[in-house]
Amino acid sequence: MRRTLVYKTVTLNGIKTPGIIHNGGYHFTCFDVYENGRVNDWNFEDFEHFIKDVQSGWVVTSIPDGEEISCFHLGAWKISDSKWYFTPETYIDYIKSLVLELNPTWANIHTYQEKKVNGIIVGESGTGTVYKVDTENVDKFFPKKVVGEDRSLFYILDGCYYLVRLLLFKDKSILIHGCGEEKLLDLNSLEELIKNGIVCSTPPLGAKVIIENLGEFTIAEEGYSNDIEEIFAELEDDYRKLNGEKTLNELCLEVFEAYKANPSDELKEVLKEAYERVPEHLRMYLGDMDTKDGEIIDIIYGPEYWNQWNEDK
């Protein structure tokens, strides 16, 4: 008898919380902690494996003064005068408390089993989808979720620079977490906060930075930072993606493919315009891991670009 195949997608509830990965450097990130005890700390196995990640130093609870903290798509800074809120032991207890908040009886806790396909170990992504409950179209039996994207930025409050999570949703609303009470904004009000210097991407030397529920430190030296205007353009792109529109990267790649199929001066100029609309820190994704955006640069700027690049190094 022919079998009729079915499948079911299981939803796991989780909570994001700040953490630090030590892998060739100190990387600030947010861990996704799930009700079945799994923790996405760039590994995604089970709670016992998370404990081992802390004990091995993959997950750390502090960064030594003089070392650099990096934050994806935001920047990197050497720190001083740091104060950290957890030890490895208390951090494990804290993460366990988040699981218990979601799952008070500690029921159905996941046990990891390695999966192989044709002899190759296959992992799975532990990255969850950010969402908020829809308060406009209320359904008390089956609350609807509004999906979103999250980014890190600094929010200035009482003279301190809070490293916050900015959550942008499909309906264009924005929540800010990580500086006390939740703040509700939209893109226009966020733009005003940026213009007024309250939200930024580049804290000055000597600034006190607070990571809520993790630690605090002083900026001793900047390694690099991305411009706030570029990050705002990325947020606008997030909104396009959430609403099923093409992103600036996708639009640029479309023109790139059209140019390769039928090169012309007109398409070259269109490609240049599309490329320069892409936020600078995202242009590296306009190609594969080796070439990045090099092929597009060759087309629109020519060898003069690389000559100047070598001189500036």
From TrEMBL:
| DUF7638 domain boundaries | 7-105, 140-245
DUF7639 domain residues: 249-303
Protein name from the UniProt record: Uncharacterized protein
Species in which this protein is naturally found: Myroides marinus
